[in-house]
Sequence to fold (330 residues):
Amino acid sequence: MSKKSLRLELEAATRWVSNTIMGRPWAFSVEITHNCNADCLHCDKGDYIKNEKLATPAEYKKIYDESKALVVQISGGEPMMRKDYLDVVRAFKNPGHLPYIVFVCNGALLTLEKYDELKEAGVDQFSISIDFPDERHDENRKVKGLFKHLNELIPQIMARGNKDVTMITAVHRLNYPYLLDNLKLVQGWGAALNFSMYTAGRTGDKDLLITSDEDLKGLRKSLDEIIEAKKNGAPVFSSVDVLNRYYKFYENGCSAPSCKVGKRSFVVNPDGTITPCAMKFKKTYPSHDAIKNDFVPNNHCDECFISLRANTEKPLAEVIRDIWRSRSRI
Fold:
């Protein structure tokens, strides 16, 4: 390991411990636009917002500076629909130091040239959606040709030798039987695969929830296949414990108590208003401290278990173990 990498790991470990002790967040997620070029079945975005009010990159950076989070997640909507998305990334860039910058997109507007621009701007990791292992992905997102585009682009990106693309599947009733197929596809591309659980909190559509005994049995089978593949070396980002908690979320009637949003993570809306999570984007606060002091003590919501929440709510010992296991495979 280089001195630069070791220095960054030590910085991350130190801030991770101090943030946990001080009640500061691990992750800061900024949705830089709610406009999107897709209209996904499982999401509430997709409409064009005329004259959308947008904060400046510097205003986002000021909110981040007050939080001292380890990870900055830049998302939307589709973040590449905002003209100054590169300036937003540059605002957070701190070469050789935190934050670790994750760029979340659907990939439709991504090209090799734009990938290079985003890397130069400061992106450390890309999180790109994959719902189905074939053209059903297009149908789910209402973007014609999207799967073909990803099927060509992602292998080209990975051929450059950077391990910086993680695909992510939002698991719901229609796609849970194909999780292993998604993994095989993504592994063939040379990327990794992460998972997140669908919630009706965005759309109000409970038909996509996994609730019947038959579907729960099928989900358990699919997750067990993923767990077995992970144990055999497949590039699955989600830990075994998180995958099992995902199942518990559905088994418990789409309930995951003890939510720590506002404490371990929070979200910034396009206009710069601060909210505990993306499911409650209309409930805003003037600062993260206000969320921590007002929202967190009174938060009894249990209605989602998305990836951001699942991975920032790991016990400290589990985080250390997962980091150690990940590093031992490098």
Remarks:
- The first strand starts at residue 27 and ends at 31.
- The mean pLDDT is 93.
- The first helix runs from residue 3 to 22.
